[in-house]
Amino acid sequence: MKPVVSVYSVTMGIAMLALWSFSWATGAIPEMTTKPWEIAMHLTAEFTTAGLLIVSGAGLWFGARWATRVNIFASGMLVYSLIQSPGYYLQRNAMIFVVLLAVVFLLTVVISPAFKPRQPTF
To answer: What's the predicted TM-score (pTM) here?
Structure first.
């Protein structure tokens, strides 16, 4: 399962970076002028999530001992983003994005080690 989680994490991280970078470069983030502090903090969270997904996914691929814990944290960040983000698109009646984010949310819950039962450690 670790190779699947690894590839998924890196892919999601790259997709997040690409989406936000493209939106930023094309001026498609109106909040940059209307709500600069709010969007700055949001982008910080999104880029941090993407970075942690990429780093932990690569770590899982190469068998780093720390990678599972970091990936669990990054997956939690991703889940928060996938719960919060559809509101932006619901407000704009862009239902295709709402559906896409819902599918990615469900896939994340199925794939992520954060949602797998584990034996307690004492």
So the answer is: 0.89
